[in-house]
Structure prediction request, 246 residues.
Amino acid sequence: MPKVTPTSARKADHIRINLEKEVRSGLTTGLENYNFIHQAIPEINLQDVELGVNFLGKSLKAPLLISSMTGGTEEAQQINQTLAAAAQKMGIAMGVGSQRAAIENPELAFTFQVRNVAPDILLLANLGAIQLNYGYTVDECHKAIDMIEADALILHLNPLQEAAQPEGDTNFKGLLAKIEKVCKTLHVPVIAKEVGWGISGMAARKLYEAGIAAIDVAGAGGTSWTQVEMHRAETQSQARLASAFL
Prediction:
């Protein structure tokens, strides 16, 4: 059994809390405010509609991504294997959860490795961008990519979650320049991803100028990671802080 580290223990907490607690965002996507205008005379043959796209050099049967969820704890292996098998069957893309736990403890790499069930999919590695301010370099990015035979790397951005997390990393100063260096150095595309609070137009522009190849906006409407961290809080003040953000 792999050694339990603080990072892998946190990942186990996240899975447990998502299964046992109510952690949905208090906000919706906003899509309920819009309706398509019905076209009663479409003048097309439905059989001619083609959903396939080319994205980051890979062909997808539909423009869909199973975005990053988990990894780094034994329970996560089956989750990632199941999601990857579904992605392979449907011909869509998948990103794994943050690989920090396996960078710290390579014995956990198997919890992220899914090429055995998904040899053909567009597969995205994943590290927290904030770790570039805590000792991570392009070398760790390469390790994450090689670990799972990935086609691209996600750098996820989660400042609000880190601020609410008991052990969060909260030095965001100078991070954009380090993201730019990663983009210029890596041999694969780099994707920026939020985790539930979206990416503004201004932030998207800065990321694009830094060399980011694609952006996963990951706005409101799903899991609220501040609500998850509220259930992990070590003090009442930490819990109150986390609960203030939907």
In short: Residues 74-90 form the longest helix (17 residues). The chain has nine helices and eight strands. The mean pLDDT is 96.
